[in-house]
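Suppose you are handed a protein chain with no further information: no name, no annotation, nothing but its sequence. What can you learn? This example shows the usual starting point.
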Amino acid sequence: MGQSDMMIAAAAVNGLMPMHVWAMPDGRIRSVGTTLRKAFGPNLLDGTAFFDVFEVRRPGAIFTVDDLRRRAGERLSIVPHRVANVQSLRGIAVALGGEGGVLVNLSFGIGVIEAVVAHHLTDADFAATDLAMELLYLVEAKTAVTEELRQLNLRLQGARDAAQEQALTDTLTGLRNRRALDFAMANLIEHHIPFGLMHIDLDYFKAVNDTLGHAAGDHVLRQVAQSLLLETRSGDTVARVGGDEFVILFNGLTEPESLSRIANRVVERLSEPSDFQGEVCRISASIGITISTDYLPPEAEQMLSDADTALYASKNAGRGQAQLFRGDRRAAGE
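A reasonable first move is to predict its three-dimensional structure. Written in structure tokens, the prediction is:
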């Protein structure tokens, strides 16, 4: 075979087998497929000894090109030397006539995906008939489907979270609702976390609704919500539980003096006139306070009932004030 014929043959082989190694009878490498050269870089050059670059692990006892010729057609397990990103290869040898040596067609086997990533390979680096391309297409399709499913799950989780949040939120004020309050109280009691409770009822709110209309009333309720949030901490629960009734849970706060100071500030803040479309809205607030450590053990409904009792004591005493329920460490249900 002439030099030009060898060049033509090498080009044809590379088109069909871009992962080939052509080894001459003396063991020197005649040509290397473009994809294999891309993966191996300078470790795999024409003229390099085949067995300086590769070790045939299976079948055993293959140390020369003649050994490869005798095992032609068998599956080969080959480990490359000095190439960190190629762990193992699969191959098959074809004996060429005359002094042609051996043509070894290699593949990355199950490591093809890692090889594609490590060596930046594309479909152009594989033969059109290579089953590795089918695997890569399947992996790409699976990746796309997996990502779509992940995005769908995120959207569904977001929708669930939004629905749950909506179910626990008062739509007018943005505060927690009665359901959220019940959950919060149950959680505090279950985990033995002490807390203070304020039941707030707006004074003169009906007059605002009757004289200025429900739009003015809604405006006042939203302003009350903002005022209550300003007087509480991020870990507290502020809930609207009725038309003009609110409950606050103060996580970990049980000192009567501190709770009374906060209640007085709330009354003072809510008593400030507010403007609605040029009209002055005037309200106040009556507050009843209970403390979980006054109960053995604390029970949600009893605490709410006692706070309501203290609240109406505030109303009966002239409104616009707060009173602490005196239970003397009562047992729940008394």
